[in-house]
């Protein structure tokens, strides 16, 4: 991992078109097959405005795997360090059937 500040938490998955709509908290369309994450509400900040995290790229790790994605949404129920991942992001790190992964991540 890189020397930037890194965070740890749970990685869960969501399908934008089914879970909250295809317009994310950053006010931009997000496709179900796009490499997008929803930032936990604690780090995202005020849920009704665009966060400083919007459109930043993050690198997410689980075990020996990693994947890059863009912050385009917020996850109200996620705790500090958690990220909600679209299916292709989650699949790059683990099996959708597990539902939850232990992750670490940092901005790139």
TrEMBL record:
State the organism named in the record: Phascolomyces articulosus
| Family matches, as InterPro entries | Expansin_CellWall, RlpA-like_sf
Which keywords, in A-to-Z order, does the entry hold? Signal
Q: Which domain of life is it from?
A: Eukaryota
Q: Does the keyword Nuclease apply?
A: no
The keyword Signal is assigned to this record: yes
**PANTHER family reported for this sequence:** PTHR31836, SRCR DOMAIN-CONTAINING PROTEIN-RELATED
Show the Gene3D superfamilies listed in the entry: RlpA-like domain
Segments forming a coiled coil = none
Protein name according to UniProt: RlpA-like double-psi beta-barrel-protein domain-containing protein-containing protein
């Amino acid at each position: 991992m890189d020397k930037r500040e890194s965070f740890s938490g749970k990685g869960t998955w969501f399908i934008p078109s089914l879970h909250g709509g295809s317009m994310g908290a950053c006010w931009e369309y997000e496709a179900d097959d796009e490499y997008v994450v929803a930032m936990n509400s604690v780090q995202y900040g005020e849920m009704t405005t665009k966060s400083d995290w919007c459109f930043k790229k993050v690198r997410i790790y689980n075990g020996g795997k990693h994947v890059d994605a863009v912050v385009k949404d917020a996850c109200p129920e996620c705790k500090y360090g958690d990220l909600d991942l679209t299916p292709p992001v989650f699949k790059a790190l683990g099996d959708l059937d597990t539902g939850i992964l232990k992750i670490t991540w940092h901005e790139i």
